[in-house]
Design goal:
Elements: E1 6-7, E2 14-18, H1 25-29, E3 36-40, H2 42-58, E4 65-67, H3 75-87, E5 92-97, H4 99-112, E6 116-120, E7 132-136, E8 142-147, E9 154-158, H5 159-162, H6 167-194, E10 198-199, H7 202-227, H8 233-250, H9 257-265, H10 275-289, H11 294-307, H12 313-316, H13 321-331, H14 347-364
Parallel strand pairs: 1-10, 2-9, 3-4, 3-5, 5-6, 6-9
Antiparallel strand pairs: 7-8
Helix pairs in contact: 3-4, 6-7, 6-8, 6-10, 7-8, 7-11, 9-10, 9-13, 10-11, 10-14, 13-14
Bound molecules: zinc ion.
Length: 365
């Protein structure tokens, strides 16, 4: 192994985003197979089912079968769908829906050794272009991050579809994407220090910076536009930041303190927020841990507040001091991504950083 390690990214071969592009699905699918199988969640699929089927039929590659029963992305569900699709001689898998549906579809495609295509119906996740599937139990307990040999061959994002999902999804996606600009540089620095086998690419670091500036410039406008039912340039820019840029930026590893803080906080039963919202709070904690300039922290905090992302503990839910201590300890678990920070972080440091965020958040409100 050379001392400089290996730089590696796994990317989708094609990314198509725009208003109404769902009608192009069939002509894209036809380039990869003739027997498409659709994997979806029931509610999300009901909104696009007619258009998906019509586009595939018009292109001469009608749906062989579909499974819209994905609730959680579990190994049992992946195996069950893969067995059925295998019997049907499926040669391309289309995942349609949120993170759980597309993750299930990608894992099914991997099992069958056929290409995966993802068609997101909302923006809470950047899972669509990633070469992994996050596996849960039936009752939503994390099992593993299953690494796949390749990313989907196509990510098709119809902005008319994703902009019609509840606006909170877009905000959650922005919260998660925000983390890429902070966690990836921290991860990259720690990998360099460790002379680790896997090193971040310059390209990913650069894309993350651009992702951050797009979120800062267009985030609030995009939320307002989606609330008003409009697909504007700001909406397009933010959707790209979430779906393409943050996926590219995180690809190949890249979580650090923000996701570790999320993983710690989610052991508390009273936490009432979603993944991207808690991660955004974790970004604020990471910024304090990194001793970033106060003006920089306040800028991100104001942005979070303007979007309705949590900036104080009370925004996250019911938390007592004992639970907070347990969460800080969990965040520093050696198997978690806190170990990707370029300096050692203790539970005490996490608690102090949370207290500092609390102080700043209260002063801002
Ligand atoms: Zn995340």
């Amino acid at each position: 192994m050379p001392e400089s390690g290996v730089r590696r990214v796994i990317l989708p071969a094609r990314y198509v985003q725009g208003s109404g592009v769902l009608s192009q699905l069939g002509s894209h699918v036809r380039q990869y197979g003739t027997r498409p199988f659709v994997v979806a969640g029931r509610t999300s699929f009901s909104k696009v089912k007619a258009r998906v089927q019509a586009s595939l039929l018009a292109a001469g590659v009608p749906v062989v079968a579909y499974d819209d029963s994905v609730g959680e992305c579990t190994m049992a569900k992946i195996n069950e769908i893969a067995a059925r699709a295998d019997e049907l001689d499926v040669d391309v898998v289309v995942g349609c829906g949120g993170g759980k549906a597309v993750d299930t579809a990608k894992a099914v495609a991997e099992k069958l050794h056929v290409p995966a295509i993802t068609v997101p119906t909302q923006c809470a996740t950047n899972a669509d272009g990633m070469a992994d599937a996050v596996i849960f139990t039936e009752d939503h307990r994390f099992v593993q991050d299953l690494y796949l040999s390749r990313a989907p061959v196509l990510v098709l994002v119809d902005t008319d579809v994703v902009a019609r999902a509840p606006p909170q999804y877009l905000v959650q996606g922005m919260g998660d994407a925000l983390a890429s600009a902070f966690e990836k540089p921290a991860y990259a620095a720690s990998q360099r220090m460790k002379k680790a086998a896997d090193q971040a690419t310059e390209a990913a670091l650069e894309v993350n910076l651009r992702c951050f500036s797009v979120l800062m410039a267009h985030g609030l406008q995009a939320k307002k536009d989606v609330e008003a039912g409009k697909v504007t340039d700001s909406v397009e820019a933010v959707v790209e930041a979430i779906k393409l840029m943050s996926g590219f930026g995180f690809g190949g590893g890249g979580c650090a303190a923000a996701h570790a803080v999320h993983n710690g906080l989610t052991i508390i039963p009273g936490i009432a927020r979603k993944h991207g919202e808690i991660v955004a709070y974790g970004v604020l904690v990471q910024m304090v841990l990194e001793k970033r300039q106060m003006g920089e922290i306040e800028r991100v905090m104001r942005w979070c507040k303007s979007l309705g992302l949590p900036t104080r503990l009370r925004d996250l839910g019911e938390i007592d001091r004992g639970q907070l201590l347990a969460a800080a300890e969990k965040a520093c678990d050696p198997t978690d991504s806190m170990s990707s920070m370029p300096f050692a972080v203790t539970p005490r440091m996490v608690l102090e950083a949370i207290e500092e965020v609390e102080r700043l958040g209260t002063a801002l409100s």
